[in-house]
Write a structure and sequence with these properties.
alpha+beta, two-stranded parallel sheet, 3 helices
Length: 83
């Protein structure tokens, strides 16, 4: 339902001027990957990371929290250096 609501307002995200990090797992449900595709094509300053072998649970202990943490640290370090 939220994805359908977002679809009609997707272009409102085109005005976001902040650096944005999109993260997802290759094993996540298709609708989540599709919305990340749409956001990646809409946001002007976006970096996308897709984690192999995990789904939406990557940040949790049973997923891959270390990989998520590494990407977050790298993103914020780069963002702070650029800003």
């Amino acid at each position: 339902m939220l994805v359908e609501e977002l679809d009609s307002s997707l272009q409102t995200f085109a005005g976001v001027s902040a650096e944005v990090l999109l993260m997802g797992g290759r094993r996540s449900p298709a609708f989540l990957r599709e919305i990340l595709d749409a956001l990646e094509g809409t946001l002007p300053r976006v970096k996308r990371v897709e984690f192999k072998g995990v789904g939406h649970e990557a940040p949790h202990d049973r997923g891959s929290p270390e990989r998520v943490g590494e990407e977050l640290r790298a993103f914020f370090a780069d963002t702070l250096l650029d800003g």
